[in-house]
Each structure stands twice: as C-alpha cells, then as structure tokens.
Amino acid sequence: MSAALPARVDIARQVQAQYTYEGTLPLASMQRLRGGLASSEGDACYVVEFGKDGLGISYLALRVEAGLPLVCQRTLETFTYPVLVDQRLGLIAHESDEAALPEGYEPLLVPDGQLGIADVIEDELILALPVVPLKPGAPLEWNDGSGEASTDMEPTNPFVVLGSLKKH
Fold first, then answer.
1. Residue 41 lies in a domain
2. Domain, as residue range, for 30
3. Is 148 part of a structural domain of the chain?
4. Which of 69, 110, 117, 159 qualifies as a cystine partner to 38, CB 3.0-4.6 A?
5. Contact criterion met (CB below 8 Å) for 18 and 28
6. What is the Cα–Cα distance from 103 to 96, expressed in whole angstroms?
7. How far, in Å, are 24, 36, 53, 59, 90 from residue 15 at the CA level?
8. Residue partners of 5: CB distance under 8 A and separation at least 6
9. Is the pLDDT at 146 greater than 50, yes or no?
10. What CA–CA distance (Å, rounded) separates 118 from 33?
C-alpha cells in the first residue's frame, strides 16, 4: 500500500498493516538539514516499509535517495553530493531492548509508539552528511601562506625561525 506521508503515525498499526509510504520530500521542508546545505533546492525520494520479521521484531525499512547541495571545503564551489540511505531500523520502546536486536538492525527508539516519518528521513540524511564536504576531483593543493599553491603536503616547521635566533 502506498500513501502520502502523514505528520505522525502509530507504530503498532503501521507494523500490523505492513504499511508502505513512497514519495518525495523537499529539502526545504527539513529545518535541521538545511543548515548544512548550500541551498534548500531539491528533493529526497523515499520508500518506507513497516513490518515484522521472522523473529517477531518490528522494523522500519528505509530507502532514501537525494542529491544534497554542499560547499566544497577545498575549492568553495557548490556541488551535489549523492546520498543513498538503505537502512533497517528496529523499532524499540525502551533503550534496554536494543541488545535484543539482531545484526543488521539499527535501533530506533519510539517510547510513546508515535513516529514522525519525515523526522526519521531527515535524521538519516543528516547522518549521511560528510564531516568535511569535498567535491570529487578537487585538487590536492594547499596554500602555505607564500601566495603559491603547493602539492607538497609536508608543512614547514614553524620552529625553524627559533632555531636561527638561537644561533645569533
């Protein structure tokens, strides 16, 4: 079953019905993610499936694809960072239930049984952001302060000047 994305859902009902949501979310609607982006243009395509596996574990299978506009920290150019999230989240009500999740599941704490699916999608995109965005193919040059770019990655020793003062 496919439907529009509601603001909040009841986990037990979604799992029981094995509900599936499919669609797109505009990046502009993701308040927390927007702070890390160069612009808020674009969409994230998602497929969210609720279910219960053979062990009786309730899960949310999430697949999100997006092109995130980021600023390269080396060239300061804007580029599109492709993101593909393919995650199976085990739905748990208490932190102590995390230990019971089998391998391959990430825990998703849902203490009140209610979940904002858009929030989960945004969380996963935030986790996919690189710490230091670098455009593919960006040059490996750095500026040593002399005004000339250098590909030599060994910085000069700042204490060389002190050594020359000691000789006088």
1. yes
2. 9-138
3. no
4. 69
5. no
6. 16
7. 22, 33, 10, 7, 11
8. 21, 23, 25, 46, 48, 117, 118
9. yes
10. 12
Residue 97 belongs to a domain: yes
Distance CA 11, CA 114 (A): 6
Token digits for 125? Answer: 């995109």
Cross-strand bridge partners of residue 22: 47
Mention every residue, 6+ apart, whose C-beta is less than 8 A from residue 82. 65, 66, 67, 68
The pLDDT tens digits for 67-121 are: 999 999 888 999 999 999 999 999 999 998 898 898 989 999 998 989 999 999 9
Check if the beta carbon of residue 64 is closer than 8 Å to that of residue 48: no
Which amino acid belongs to residue 36? G
Stated pTM of the model: 0.78
Residue 84, pLDDT score: 96
| 3-state DSSP helix/strand/coil % of the chain, to nearest 5 | 25, 35, 40
Q: What CA–CA distance (Å, rounded) separates 141 from 135?
A: 13
The type of residue at 2 is S
How many domains, the chain?
A: 1
Task: Take residue 142 and report the two structure tokens written for it.
Answer: 């750095």
